[in-house]
Amino acid sequence: MSSLITKKYWQRPIRPRLRSSIIAVVASSMAIATFGVTSAASAAAKPKPTITIWVDSTRVPQVKAYEKAHPTVKVSMVIYNGNANGSGVLQSKIALDNRVNGGWPDIVFSEENNDAASLASPQFNYPAVLSNGTVSKKVLGGYAAGTLAGCTVNGKVYCLRNDLAQNLLFYNSALMTQFGYTVPTTWQGWQTLGEEVATQHPGYIVGSVGDNWDDDIYLWPSACHLNDVLKPDTIDINPNDPNCTRVTSLIDPLIKDGAVTTDSVFSSAFATAFNDKILMMVGPSWYGQYLFPGIVTKGDLAVADPLSWGSGPTYTGEVGGGLWFMSSHVTGATKALTASVLTWLSTSYGSQGISPGYPAYVADETQWISAQQASGLYSNQIAPVFAKAATEVWGGWSPVPWSTDSVFGSTVVTGLNSGSTMSSQLAGYASQLVNYAQSDGYTVVTSP
Amino acid sequence: MQPVVPKRTPTPRGTTDSLNPKLRRKQRNGVAGYAFVSGYFILLILFGVLPAAYAITLAFTSTGGHFVGLSNFVKTGQDFRFLPAFEHVGEYLVIWLGSLVVIVVGLALTLHSIARRVSSAFRFIFYLPGALAGAASVLVWLFMLDPTVSPWREFLSLFGFKNLGQTILPGHLPIIFAIIAFWAGAGGWIVVTYGALNNIPNELIEAAELDGAGPLQTALRVKLPLIKKWVTFMLILAFAAGTQLFVEPQLVGEASLGLISPTWSPNELAYYFAFQDNNFNYAAAISVDLLVIGLLCAAVLVFRTKLFEVE
Amino acid sequence: MKLFNRIWSRTFAYVVLLGFTAFFVVPVIWLLLSPTKTDHELVVGNPFAIGTIHNLAHAIHVMFSFENYALLTWLKNSAIYSFGGIVIALICSIPAGYALAHTQFIGRRTLLGTTLFVMIMPATALVLPLFLEANAAHAVGTAWSVILPFSFFPFGVYLAYIFYSSSVPKDLLAAARIDGCNEWNVFRRVALPLARPIIALVTFFAFVANWNNFFLPFVMLPNSNNYPLPVGLQDLLAATPAFNPGQGGQVPIYRPELAIATIVAMAPVLIVFLFAQRSLVSGMLAGATKE
User: Fold this and answer.
1) Which of A155, A178, B209, C221 could form a disulfide with C226 if both were Cys (CB 3.0 to 4.6 A apart)?
2) Which CATH class is domain A167-319+380-445?
3) Complex ipTM tops 0.90
């Protein structure tokens, strides 16, 4: 150790090169930092935008189209992730904005269906009520019947729908002809067909239960009471509802026989195993554009009306669809302007035929349908099927602040993956829903 | 295990002052000490102490700002997600902490015993995963965990997993998260530990070898005790990081398109309360729970190993 | 017998090291090969298959031009925030670590304890108060709201503290004091040059922490033009069909393009690592005594 002391290290001057290189690094870093700060500051000091709109990347063309059509209105567009996948980005930002009482975006687009209930709750209190005259009754009436239910909380409409994701029955017309089957019109008929397929053509499937939104595909259309908000803060969650148990009893034998798979439809396992082996599948309208191309030969895909349970009205469910909100903190003249922007974004754009999904606004649907039909994806006329299904979405599966899909995924789908039956998982699914409801202050009742 | 360190003859503390040498030096040191820490001190207050104090206050108040005592703690403790979250993290912690410390120290010692250039290359390789930020590694793990596309598919098929959903069944999650967290975090700790080992004077190691110690003995009886402070520090931080698990359940949840509960770990539950329920007080209560647990572990380790004492 | 022990332990060492190499590196190799394949090939082909340069070029082009070269904007922002934070962090942390180890003052241990306390506090809880502070200073949305909190780097202080207290002997500094150096010169001329490896280490870890930090920029920066890479990547993931099947269809970013974005996010960290490694390897002794 003594050798260290004899060096008198400190008596040597700091090596000049080292010193100058240190200075250079520090100076350049400070220069970079300052430059960054000044450019950021100058960006913040731009002339005040009139309307701040938050959208995801897919909606960017819509906002740009608005700007082009209305050059006098100042618009500031912020691209974010659309609150997708339950990321809660919108909730985080609005929670913080509420704390500092400012900074709310004027218009937001959200892909998350629960956001109507979540953001309208007293904790967030973000969206403006639209049904009190803010948006004209004419416009509100221009949406496909029943579709604004997804935006209605406690009787008030809090958002406008962008596109719909109504469930219908997709099938492979070529395979159906080849095997000599007829398209079922009832769920019971679907099950019978599934059993036949399992014996006559193993390896082909008639459906899947492997994704967390499958409750919207199978339980919702059955008018199953697991998510029915009866009145403010009262929800009906009944796992013993025959409407719920009939679904799981229907599907379990098919899963056992392999006619319904438990793979996620977007997984590689699914793509490998079921390439051109999907005989039929109930799913949301966007499956046509975003799932089937690539695993169904082009031109073979066809659509049919949603399946019914026999007696009573035919219901279907929906999986997704976008929502447009307007801030409740906008007042005065700006409020009218913001409402007009909101209305335009939700209604006028679709007429340009490039809406990504089936437009919720009826007047925009024709153009969209023609574009889809012209793409050669479908082998039959889709217009009547899409339009009819849009009106059949059951209003008893309500938007709530928690994600029923998330619970379904972590209880039922997980149970299926470990080999349990769907029926055995229903109670667990329901009890978790009850937990969430009670934790959010809802009173839970059970009535069929 | 007694550290094998050659004895050092104590050198008298050098002084030049005649009267009250100790006092003089202490005064001089005191002022200088304050000057050196001043910059950091300001940052500590602004971005450490004040926010922490605010957060702790939140834990004991209600949304309106009224003092509510332990009410937030009781209410969050009774939440249906609270106990499962802590159970999950408990299981995770046992696997993660044990493997992290043992493997990191073991690998660092192994690296230290081989040639410098070679160990540089290994250290770089071990660090590679650490460069992947949380969001960036979602893509990687989506593929790694899916038995149909993963490079590890032979290994996964040994367990009979047929799809992603089967790989991430609830019982497997603590192990999977521990593997992911280890994969991303070990490299950094190996670098720190290796750096610590590198600062051991060669004479000590040579002396031990002259005394007849083999490589394993040198590692365990000479090197390890000399890096005690570093290992303690790593343990404290790894324990806190483990109890505050957040990124791994989020990213596997995202990769699987939502098959994992968004409140799997307590920290996720706190986040959920803060940003999904807009209840920052509940979130603060859970954060304080985690803080207390981390501090207990830190206190035990600090006092047992005298981390704050200098020679 | 001794030789046998030596060979055996050396072989064992290499076997262990190579085993862990496979564990750490296989996913990274997969990642590097991904952009050379098409999305379909990724899903159905062999994970280790090598694709074509054409695919690679396509993926790079699509990814970089996405959203008007957003990736480059995020890169630039990340660089600004990270380097800004590092400079201030170094200026504050190294002297602080030194002082905590080698000077006596009242409150030394309290400072150490408080630092540890703040490090252990969950970040979730600190987000809101930090946001409120930034808002009070009208700094929300500016680079300073991110750079200043980044400069607070208690981990760096601890690294410096432990390094100075275990590896720099008091005698060395005492000898300098005997020679008449004042405290500042003792630091500048003795302690600081010896700390080259720890400066490299702190710089590296500060860089990584800042580069990969998601939560703070997410909260402080509402405008997508100011996003650093982690926040931008998170948005990107939500926009792609791979993770958002229903809504992401319009965005032509598939998994090979995502792999490019991931590699771009990784690369600077690894480059900084390589530079820092060189200082790390030298160690304290190389500076002080090696003849």
Assistant:
1) C221
2) alpha beta
3) no
